[in-house]
């Protein structure tokens, strides 16, 4: 049995507003934190294990660390938007 459970890790302290959108984002966050622990040797929790991934998971479960979500990439410009942009530039050149 995994302790803490994946469900607890995903929800955090507030089930209405989960900390992670998917299991994938949870795994990425734990892996990044585990790499930091390997490099620095600094952990923010007491854990029976000294394995970096286990320590990282315990830190996440205890809300000892926080993560920023990346902003979604802006949508690519549509052909209409590009055409309007070029037409506007052309009008500005002719007006000068």
From TrEMBL:
Pfam families referenced in this protein's UniProt entry, alphabetically: RNA_pol_Rpb6 (PF01192)
BP terms from Gene Ontology: DNA-templated transcription
Highest taxon above the source species: Bacteria
Record EC number: 2.7.7.6
Reactions it catalyzes: RNA(n) + a ribonucleoside 5'-triphosphate = RNA(n+1) + diphosphate
Top enzyme category: transferase
Annotated Gene Ontology cellular component terms: DNA-directed RNA polymerase complex
Keywords recorded for this protein, A-Z: DNA-directed RNA polymerase, Nucleotidyltransferase, Transcription, Transferase
GO molecular function terms noted in the UniProt entry: DNA binding; DNA-directed RNA polymerase activity
Keyword Transferase: yes
Subunit relationships: The RNAP catalytic core consists of 2 alpha, 1 beta, 1 beta' and 1 omega subunit. When a sigma factor is associated with the core the holoenzyme is formed, which can initiate transcription.
PANTHER family attached to this UniProt entry: DNA-DIRECTED RNA POLYMERASE SUBUNIT OMEGA (PTHR34476)
Family label: Belongs to the RNA polymerase subunit omega family.
Function summary: Promotes RNA polymerase assembly. Latches the N- and C-terminal regions of the beta' subunit thereby facilitating its interaction with the beta and alpha subunits.
Protein name per UniProt: DNA-directed RNA polymerase subunit omega
Organism placement in taxonomy: Bacteria, Bacillati, Bacillota, Clostridia, Eubacteriales
Gene name as annotated: rpoZ
